[in-house]
Amino acid sequence: AAKKAAKLAEKEAKKAKAAAKAAAAAEKAAAAAAAAGSEKKANKKAEAEAKKAAEASEVQRILEGLSAVAKGDKKPTDGEMFKSYNPKMVEAAWYDWWEQCGFFKPDPDSDKPPFTIVIPPPNVTGALHIGHALTNAVQDTIVRWRRMSGYNVLWVPGTDHAGIATQSVVEKKLHKEQGVTRHDLGRDAFLTEVFTWVDEYGDRICTQLRRMGSSVDWERCVFTMDSTRSAAVLEAFVRMHESGCVYRDNRLVNWDARLRTAVSDIEVDYIDIPGRTLINVPGYDKPVEFGVMTSFAYPLEDGSGEVVVATTRPETMLGDTAVAVHPEDERYKHLHGKFAVHPVSKLRIPLITDAELVDMAFGTGAVKITPAHDPNDFMVGKRHSLEFINILDDNGNINDQGGSFKGQPRFEARITVVDFLKQAG
């Protein structure tokens, strides 16, 4: 039995040795195959990179040849061409030649039917984006098609001054580089800075239009605030004013207390505030509270009682010139035609009836009217011939109309006015 066991053990040892040898051989073969694969992959990558470098060198060589073409000369078309489409090579030199030959200019003596469009002038505040590329490509397609269809075509280019946006950008630049404001410089010097900035960025926009191949008549390129356009606008407004089409009047404006200028309605974003909200306002160290309703009372002139109103802008009460109620509200019918006393200015303010503004079911049914600082109140003031009292200066501070609150920033006055009303009971 011992002899049989020894032979069996010897047999198993030989099997294990053969298996190990086979495993070693397989590992060696796998390593060799992997090395071969890696080498093949590396060679393939090197070949691709070499091919790419060769193509780039070839492109650069052809471009250098094209760069020798004088500006405005026609690019030779009988030379070698790259095997695949390359926009730099295809586009090189063509636009300068088109422009030099005047292909985009209309013929003033032509008897062809005219076709004219004006490019929607891009704002000079920045560079063109994909939206401009899209719309200009469409316009260029139409313009070129019309030329090929036998029309005498004019496509007028230009840039827009962008109003407040340009002013804001230039002011920030002045503050950063020179530490001054437009008020420090004065109107003429500030306009010089604006035109310097426009020359720089306007040229960038025109270069982009050229890069896109836009077939505009560059001799007619204008800026909406240049001397000719400014004179035309001024003349147009003077004529309209003289004919009664436009007139001057006191109106509400969106005033930017930081830029100290009016802002058009289209440039103002309105947000809905559901309740008490703290918002960081430029020029204030702490967040300003919005969306909180404050109630206070106007004592009646005859001493018979008071009228309670509510507002989310208590500082505007300094400019209140009336209290409005609904003409059918039974609670206030006995007050029609009476007067209240302003708690700060001590002026008599009328209690008026206005069915268009007042909602009897909202709040107390009585509304404070500040014609100079609210669009709805402005209309009420017009309907009832109320006094319009502006309580703010150009910097957004309370002016002389604010009495003891004069000089306070508006949103600080929001707090101090409430404190005053609390103390006054």
Features:
alpha/beta, two-stranded parallel ribbon, 4-stranded mixed sheet, 425 residues, single chain, 14 strands, 13% strand, 10 helices
Please tell me about this protein's structure.
This protein is of the alpha/beta class and 425 residues long. It contains 10 helices and 14 strands. 43% of the residues lie in helices and 13% in strands. The strands form 6 sheets. Strands 12-13-11-14 form a 4-stranded mixed β-sheet, covered by helices on one side. A two-stranded parallel ribbon has the order 1-2. The model has no long low-confidence stretch (mean pLDDT 87).
How far the N terminus sits from the C terminus, by CA atoms, comes to 119 Å
Query: Strand share of the residues?
Result: 5-15%
Uncertain segments: none
**Residues in helix, %:** 40-55%
Question: Counting H and I runs of at least 4 residues, what is the number of helices?
Answer: 10
* Main sheet properties: 4 strands, mixed
Encode the helix/strand succession as letters: HHHEHEEHHHEHEEEEEEEEEEHH
Q: Helix/strand-derived class? A: alpha/beta
**Spatial sequence of strands, sheet with the most strands:** 12-13-11-14
Task: Please give a quick description of this structure.
The chain has helices at residues 2-67, 87-91, 94-101, 130-148, 164-177, 182-185, 187-211, 227-242, 375-384, 410-424, and strands at residues 114-118, 152-156, 158-159, 222-223, 254-256, 261-263, 277-279, 288-290, 294-299, 306-311, 322-325, 339-341, 348-353, 366-369. With 425 residues, the chain is of the alpha/beta class. The strands form 6 sheets. It has a 4-stranded mixed β-sheet with strand order 12-13-11-14, with helices on one face. A two-stranded parallel sheet has the order 1-2. A two-stranded parallel ribbon has the order 3-4.
